[in-house]
Amino acid sequence: MLLRALDRFFSHEASGGILLMLSAIAAMIVANSGLSSIYDGVLGSYFAVTINGDGLEKPLILWINDGLMAIFFFLIGLELKAELLEGKLKNPSDVVLPGVAAIGGMALPALVYLAFNYSDPATVNGWAIPAATDIAFALGVLALVGDRVPSSLKVFLLTLAILDDMGAIVIIALFYTAELKVNYLFMALIPLAVMWYLNHKRVHRYAPILMLGVILWVLVLKSGVHATLAGVVTAFFVPLKDKWGKSPLHSLEHNLSPYVLYVIIPVFAFANAGVVLQGMSLSDLAAPLPLGIALGLIVGKQLGVFGCTWLMVKLGWARMPHGATWAQIYGIACLAGIGFTMSLFIGSLSFDDPILMNQVRLGVLGGSIVSGILGYLALRLSTAPDAEPESLAAE
Predict the structure, then answer these.
(1) Do the domain assignments include residue 374?
(2) Confidence at 180, pLDDT banded by 50, 70, 90
């Protein structure tokens, strides 16, 4: 009975988002209980991997954010390569509308954030925090709506979120890179060259590429470039097709997805979502940092995604997703404001100060929750449950 219930839960599209939400709630409960000192102590515990005194030594929270999240970005890289070569991003005409919506959905939240924080040098660096969309959470909320919306909207949201992730990767590479150590980058060319050769030869076994990816991760981490980017780069060297016509990329993506969705992302959420509420007042919610993040996710995402979509369609430069209504497009724009995983991650790159990070968590959680609720209500109320979404007029 229990196994059957678990199987039904994990086979549901919303399961990843639900588990993510439960992890965040658990983090908040622990961070505000008598277990908070243990929580902080464990995350602050140092772990080292060294040879003759040379190697890596980091607190557990950074092993999670730099190490486990590199695997998360590796999976994103696999998905991006598959979509670019044979999926939703292969045909440029299919990318125009969600692409412009993604650009607007990154630019407007950043501008909203800067409107509150441009004059404060301590917080201005967090401008990219509300620019990201959490794919798992957004698709999870969309799945809760069921068949009330046309399938084209799921494709629209998925494409928008994928392009949003591409933008986040570029932002991290350009704006969140520490002081460069060029010698490590030169050494990184060696595993890159070997991975290129293996991809060129369309090898069937991907284990050697994964081992080279670990070496690349260490070298990139040592170079000052954020190590998660090594995950994306490694993914692009996994062959889409081997010399026998099988797909190492799809096989690896299929095998890795459950571990990322049900282990890595929840662990990241539990380690990073622990907002400390003790001593906080309502005035703290109105501080420029959390307010800029929350309004960036709620208002900026809606204006950016919905506004750019409306403009592209009205100018005749793109067509609405088949069977969708403007009310449903608005619901999707709201769901794009669920930043959570990516927003918390960029927040961890932006600030080292625990007080500022607590404000980041507050803004991200508040903005994501409001966006999720608004998106769910907009989509649920926009179509009757017995309607036939695919037959609705485009406008």
Answers:
(1) yes
(2) confident
Report the alpha-carbon distance of residue 373 to residue 103 in Å, rounded.
23
Instruction: Render pLDDT for 40-75 as a digit per residue (tens, 0 to 9).
Output: 999 999 888 877 777 788 899 989 988 998 999 899
**362-378 confidence digits (pLDDT tens):** 999 999 999 999 999 99
Arithmetic mean of pLDDT, 307-313: 96
Domain that holds residue 187: 17-384
4 occurs within a structural domain: no
Question: Cα separation of 346 and 165, whole Å?
Answer: 12
Q: Is residue 10 part of a domain?
A: no
Domain contains 28:
yes
0.85 surpassed by pTM: no
CATH number of the domain to which 376 belongs: 1.20.1530.10
Task: Report how many domains make up the chain.
Answer: 1
